Amino acid sequence: MSRARVLVMNSALGPLDYRVPHGMQVEPGSIVVAPLGPRQLIGVVWEPERMPSDAEVGDNRLRNLIGVLPAAPLAAPLRRLIEWTADYYLAPPAAVARMALASSSALEGAKTVTEYRATGLVPDRMTPQREQALEQIGNHQGLIRELATIGNVTDAVIRGLAKVGALEAVEVDIDSPFALPDPDFAAPALSPDQRAAAATLVDSVTARAFAPTLLDGVTGSGKTEVYFEAVAAAVRERRQTLVLLPEIALTEPFLTRFAARFGAKPVAWHSGLRQSQRRRAWRAISSGQALVTVGARSSLFLPYANLGLIVIDEAHETSFKQEEGVHYHARDVAVMRAKFEKIPVILASATPAIETRQQVALGRYAEVKLPGRWGAAEMPAIEAIDLIAEPPERGHWIAPRLVVAMRETLARHEQSLLFLNRRGYAPLTLCRTCGHRFQCPNCTAWMVEHRLVHRLACHHCGHTEPVPTVCPECQSEDSLVPVGPGVERIADEVKALFPEARTAVITSDTIWSPAKAAEFVARMEAHDIDIIVGTQLVTKGYHFPNLTLVGVIDADLGLDGGDLRASERTFQQICQVAGRAGRGAKPGHVYIQTHSPKASVMQALVSGDAEAFYAAETEHRREAGAPPFGRFAGIIVSSEDQKAALETARLIGRSAPHHEAMEVYGPAPAPLAMLRGRHRFRLLVHAKRALDVQDIIRDWLGALDWPSKVRVVVDVDPYSF
Length: 721
Ligand code: ADP
Ligand code: ZN
Ligand code: ZN
What we know:
Largest sheet: 7 strands, parallel
Number of helices: 20
Bound molecules: adenosine-5'-diphosphate, zinc ion
Distance between the termini: 53 Å
Radius of gyration: 29 Å
Strand order of the largest sheet: 11-12-10-13-14-9-15
Structural class: alpha/beta
Shape: globular
Strand content: 15-25%
Number of strands: 30
């Protein structure tokens, strides 16, 4: 009798064993339908030795598998990736595998529709409608409905023509293939630096071996053009490329740019796809027809038939870290996928993470550099504005020197960008009479006023309410005051200063779809916008040659909180936003408003000495035993019942194993002590690099029990520490 171990798509369950009925063919990776109680679940067949079961079941108690789906089995490198991700991030393997099987409709295989085409046969019995239809249809092919429209007749006329043989029925796949990119469509002439960098990357593609490379080039150096050469090399070999982008908002401009270079758009994969688009993309990816896919994090787990290259663009971006469901870092998982697939992976960034630089220093990653901007463009000049020495006017946030620069920029008909990483009008609203502050009922967070929509909103759970006219505490009227600026408030200040200028607020509130992003790009290119006021959404990827001035409203914002990554994050963010200035022939200028111009990160930004800054930060991390020299894992305990959460967190803390290479801090209230109505506590595990913390945590938590209303999630390599 033959049995199969199956990873069923239920995260609460481990792998289960089934009987393979006579005549059914399965192999590791096969996608099957398995019974579970009264239900039927999709599952993936796994090698039993690689996926131990906690409950071996005797042959006589096995249930039969129901069927095998027509989709191709998941290949061994992808199965290794699923195992690795589940193991490393302490996640249920089924939750990881589900990201690979992301379109249940595609798993069912091809679906066809009947189309008709003219055969040239003239029907014996001709009617005016038939004549008219055949004349109009000509060589068209299509569904009954379409042909009826083209021929301007009823569906019945078309059916009649098919019946008498004047139209022939053909079965076609509903998922039409994607247009193929042409590697030679519009290849740019590269500069000598770019050519050398591209040659190294192309070699890594043709060598067909695991090879991680950091493509380290200043903003505007042409990193995209350079890695496009590697993509072209993979396309020439008919091998697939995955380009990972940090944000969906960036996919649309990327598609346009890619099409200009390759004559066809790549396949886009993101959470906004309709079911039919998802199905078509999944099938083209798993058959190998889709040669280039661009996507956000989740595209990493798709079953590429013939992957030849992975590119991680803006590889330093924090949004590659997934903080819900399976907590994983897409950058790190991408490198592992490349390793299992034995292919090159390119990490492109102007401000690589310290972790990535360390891999280069250790010789594990190759490095390719682009030292200067492409063409005539120069790096922008960066100045700090000391907010204590040169304060803005009372009740304002833009310092006089920046106002002057904005006026001059407008006079030259060039564009400006003011950056403040805070959505809404004001981060806090309070009552002037009694001091009441508006807090989210579900989270430990202030409600943020959004004037564009006249509401108070929580940025953590999405709760909103109308802006009240009287204070709910003391009933005073007109006593509510906004405290501090958000982008909307800065935009008001800009409009008051420059009423003639066209000002646009660019945040996730205004750019909430790829179409909105495309519209924004078009307006910038047509110079319908003079001044952008935006959040981190505008810091990445965009290339506007006429944008020559960047002002950072509050450079100190990211330094609060005191976590060890704060300086690095601030440096990266300000470098990226500064990198939007002066990307064309006109020189760029950047002003950084700060209360601490002497801080090492501000000094590094002004002097442009990234190396010295990184060296000092790396040393700092080494001393603290922080990544990449040591490691952290968070254990987050949450429940709607605060007492239950705290008791479980304490139980976990008390049961912590003793290890000289490891320390456990907490439990303490998590950074957001209440989120979406759940109270949260966090234990932080700090360990030496060499220690297998995952194994320790698995044993530690595995021996404990807690009430079902308490959720315990492990965050391996948490973003903040
Ligand atoms: P980065 O990703 O390094 O910030 P980009 O790849 O966006 O830089 O390049 C910046 C701008 O310079 C883009 O408009 C790009 O098309 C242009 N560019 C870069 N290299 C070339 C080249 N060799 N030929 C033509 N245009 C180039
Ligand atoms: Zn009040
Ligand atoms: Zn909330």
